[in-house]
Fold MYND-type domain-containing protein.
Amino acid sequence: MSAKPLPSDFVLDLHDLASIVLHCHARFEDRFVNTQLVEVNNGTTRLQSLPPHILPQQWDIAGAINKQRRIAYILRKDPSLSERVEVNTFAHPEGVKLPPSFKLGTRELEDILWRCKTFDSGYLLAYVAQSVFERLPGTARLHARTSSGHEIFCAPSDVMVAEFEILPHETCCMVAYKPRPDLGPTRVDLEQHLSGMGNIVPWIYLMIGKPISEDLDTDTRVVFDLAITQIGGRGAGGELFALERGFDYHNKLLCRYAEEQGDLQVSGKLMMSPVALRKQGDTLTDMVMERLQKLASGNVDFCRYCGKDDISTRCTKCKKAWFCRDCQAPGWKYHKVWCRPSVQE
Ligand SMILES: [Zn+2]
Ligand SMILES: [Zn+2]
């Protein structure tokens, strides 16, 4: 791995970092590589693509006893797919079975894809971001700009870890199956991933900036949450992560998707104790650092929305921010806040 240090005056834009981390994570995670969506079920109709008993008992409890909103995603594994599934290839080509009046557009597909990918990755992603900050030169600056027009700069060491618990408004079950015709015509291998299921979920984000005030109303620090899609959420600018002022995050964003439980525990450093998880985090950090080195050496042609690199189209107004063709529209809600027209010479 190349270990060329980043320049001492490097400025890391956190919105860019988030897109890059999530893109690297999507290339790296190995559970939803070749799974395609075949059904969305919200408990109002019978499961159509698999026998109903494959849903876990918690699914019935969440609906019948806890009266929780429920969503199940049925995914089919196809080991013969040669390319990693992305949002454009995520819907199964034979169609996706949907509950009545459920709309499945690109945005919804993207929500589901990311919800699967991040369902248990909150700690991993926070650890990666923290490791990146630790590897920056001490003289580098972090730059956070939110979709509400709030902006701060700070040192890479002005970062705290915040942990608390949430109760998601919606319980979610992902079932990935692989047909096993070798064992019988109706046999399948099953993998279940559950999120919420009426239980509280540990939650983590990084708090960026120098503490100005203990009071959330006046504090200028910014929340950096890379796993909001895990509970069906997005950032206030429609991003696949949240980068918001603390007050906005807690009072306007998170409450749309979950109820906060207990107190916020704040610490200086996230210890990733399980060795395997820490190793994953370190490998992912290496990938991200390599991308940052490219960025520092002038290769800024990566998509500001999805993080993909080596793309060829950019914002026609500022001519500075690159976007994939399909990402221009979803990326504009945030970008328009900070886009400045380029001055013609
Ligand atoms: Zn893109
Ligand atoms: Zn622009």
About this structure: Helices lie at 14-28, 57-64, 106-118, 122-135, 246-253, 275-296, 328-338.
